[in-house]
Amino acid sequence: FSWLPHTSNPPHQTPPPPRRSPDMKQLHKSPTHAPSPAHAPASKISKPARPGPRTWVGYLLREQRLLFVLLGALIATSFFLLRPYLFSLSASNPTERSPIFNFAAHSSDPRGVPAGFRPPPRRVVVTGGAGFVGSHLVDRLLEQGDSVIVVDNFFTGRKENVAHHLRNPRFELLRHDVVEPILLEVDRIYHLACPASPVHYKYNPIKTIKTNVMGTLNMLGLAKRIGARFLLTSTSEVYGDPLEHPQKETYWGHVNPIGVRSCYDEGKRTAETLTMDYHRGGGVAVRIARIFNTYGPRMCLDDGRVVSNFVAQALRKHPMTVYGDGKQTRSFQYVSDLVAGLMALMESEHIGPFNLGNPGEFTMLELAEGCEGNN
Ligand SMILES: O=c1ccn([C@@H]2O[C@H](COP(=O)(O)OP(=O)(O)O[C@H]3OC[C@@H](O)[C@H](O)[C@H]3O)[C@@H](O)[C@H]2O)c(=O)[nH]1
């Protein structure tokens, strides 16, 4: 503030030593000898006057200050003009955290991109992305331009399922068990990781329940921390041995908490509970899909599900193993339909839970006959 008038002692004039008032307390040690002029208090040593004009105009013109003022004004103006396009001003879901970019309010494009703008690539994590359903989801996400990180421990997933993406710069494959926490910066989390076939949850119940509980907890914690949207792939098994047919999402189910399938059925029910608790208590944007029986390429032939069993048996010309009287019904959806449903749910404004499946049911006997007929 050199333009402010300040007093300075004339050169060569030694300032008088400070007078200590009689009641002033000594808070620091002082030298035993009398202070020399060099030790005189700094407050009394005056700065030399700065040369140059002492006016506002002079101050602004010095050291390119005016340039910086103009630059600051330009940046502030650009920010406020572009703000409606860059940041969400009105989130449609009040509990949802705003993504970094939100073009939705200004666009007719399904991805919310105003004309003339390229959509920012979305960063997506798919846990269990090397599995049967996960790998098809990864195919579609990459196809639509997203950057995808697959997190998979290869317990049931296979590297071959995603090997065709290894050279894609928008694709990353991480060997990681979701039972352990992980920190990633993404916008979307598709949480699919879990052993899901009868063989696995029968012989690996601890792994199954840990993945459902601790894995889901870790991924929800990540979503909360980074403000990502989280989609849980739950299952029709949350209805247990249902007493209602067909099962609507409002049905609470009929589930055995201590049976051999409980690690999966109750595990997914707990995962749903955690998901809703993180939504209500932590403000995390969540989606829940309850997946019904699904079939398609990359199913493991030996995972014990009815479709893979019947196909394997038909190929080997073995008799088909119809359990019970074969009158139990199931519906079957093709994997690409399921993936389309998962992606639509993720980008919708609805939390769910939503049943994702085929409304057309038939008995296991009919399925076996169909397989035999086609063989
Ligand atoms: O060889 C077989 C296998 C199974 N089945 C019967 O076929 C029906 C379907 O059995 P699956 O194991 O394929 O499928 P489930 O309906 O029991 O569970 C399935 O659906 C929901 C998903 O979330 C689960 O991961 C999946 O296992 C059952 O009634 C089963 O008893 C046979 O009759 N023969």
SSE topology:
Blueprint: H1 56-61, H2 65-86, E1 123-127, H3 132-143, E2 147-152, E3 171-175, E4 188-191, H4 198-203, H5 205-226, E5 229-235, H6 262-282, E6 286-291, E7 294-295, H7 306-315, E8 329-331, E9 333-334, H8 335-347, E10 354-356, E11 361-363, H9 364-374
Parallel strand pairs: 1-2, 1-4, 2-3, 4-5, 5-6, 6-10, 7-9
Antiparallel strand pairs: 8-11
Helix pairs in contact: 3-8, 5-6, 7-9
Bound molecules: uridine-5'-diphosphate-xylopyranose (UDX).
Cofactor: NAD(+)
Transmembrane segments: 66-86
Membrane topology: Single-pass type II membrane protein
Structure summarized in a few sentences:
The protein has helices at residues 56-61, 65-86, 132-143, 198-203, 205-226, 262-282, 306-315, 335-347, 364-374; strands spanning 123-127, 147-152, 171-175, 188-191, 229-235, 286-291, 294-295, 329-331, 333-334, 354-356, 361-363. It is α/β, with parallel strands linked by helices and 375 residues long. It is found in: Golgi apparatus membrane; Golgi apparatus, Golgi stack membrane.
Account of the protein in words:
The chain is an alpha/beta fold. The protein has a domain of 194 residues: Rossmann fold (3-Layer(aba) Sandwich), CATH 3.40.50.720. It is 33% helix and 12% strand. The chain contains nine helices and eleven strands. Strands 3-2-1-4-5-6-10 form a seven-stranded parallel sheet, with helices on both faces. Helix 3 packs across helix 8. It is elongated. The N terminus is likely disordered. The structure holds uridine-5'-diphosphate-xylopyranose. The site of uridine-5'-diphosphate-xylopyranose has 17 residues, from helix 7.
